[in-house]
Fold this protein.
Amino acid sequence: MRLKTIRSCRISNDTVEVDGKTVLKTTETPGTSKQFKEIYLSLNIDYPKFYKMDMLSKLAFLAVEFIKNEGFSEKDTAIIMTNANSTLDVDLKYTKSIDPDNYFPNPAFFVYTLPNVMIGEISIRHNLKGESVFVSTENKDLELLENIAKTLEFKNCIAGFIEYENENNFEADIIFFERNYLNGGENGTAY
Amino acid sequence: MEQLIKTLKDQIINELNLEDMTADEIDAQAPLFGEGLGLDSIDALSLIVLLEREYGKKINDTETGKKVLYSIKTMAEFIKS
């Protein structure tokens, strides 16, 4: 049994793919904040809070922007995110920001040291208040997503793998699907 | 004042980890919270610490804080006062 995807987005290396088709090739070095800014600017949206986010949240934010649609529902859209390295990138930045003499670490890093914060950023952006889950998993695992989805209440769901360990290991691979499609049904709505 | 605003922008970019934003992209008169940069309460704490650490200026009550932290321009005016 496999989830039937209505929309999908994959961001890796220098490529953004939507529904399996390349929609953007970036010119900045992959995995850098400059590349993420390049992708953000390509979307032609005005959301300055993007600049405040850590790399993991930026990546999640960007991927969801490419699949957003009128099916997003305040109460009925769930979010399931997974990755292998949690918030390791910003955890390291937070640790480095601790002053050996004065201790006081950087609050701007601190607020992103939980992986479910990326779900929060997506929820704020799209006004989503449905159920959400973050699970740490070594590899992309569609079956795991499906098993988690079965335990949640939702009409449709944003789910996938958002990884940002460092510039050399990052990827967003997310899908949007409807509950009607969960058990192999064919009654979902395409957006 | 112009130089102070430019310096403040650079300090805020550094303090709030806005690494891929440039000073030119920040409107000195735009609200820092809600709209504009979309800062939150944790950022307010960072800005209060910045004012005290870099300029020796203390914000002692909420009302003053709201006025001072409205925009980069109001922060600069508070530093100059």
Q: What stands out?
A: Chain A has a mean pLDDT of 91.
